[in-house]
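F.,

This is the one I mentioned.
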């Protein structure tokens, strides 16, 4: 949803929040990593909280398919043998 007039802010925000609430029964509890909102209050997701084995497996895959670490802008796992 997009609007230009700040006078419409309250209405559009309210409608967006209602749509999100109405869709809640059909949404999962996970998070899409490209849509992390670090400005929102609360614990950060992703990153070093991943269990070690999963993180090492991700680093191995990253070393094979993205050794230059091109896809590093969200919840990054560095390629094996590199630091973030």
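My design for it:
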């Amino acid at each position: 949803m997009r609007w230009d007039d700040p006078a419409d802010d309250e209405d559009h925000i309210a409608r967006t929040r209602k749509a999100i609430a109405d869709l809640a029964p059909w949404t999962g509890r996970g998070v899409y990593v490209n849509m992390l909102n670090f400005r929102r209050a609360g614990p950060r997701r992703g990153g070093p909280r991943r269990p070690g084995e999963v993180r090492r497996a991700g680093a191995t895959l990253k070393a094979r398919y993205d050794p230059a670490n091109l896809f590093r802008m969200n919840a990054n796992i560095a390629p094996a043998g590199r630091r973030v």
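The mean pLDDT is 76.

Talk soon.
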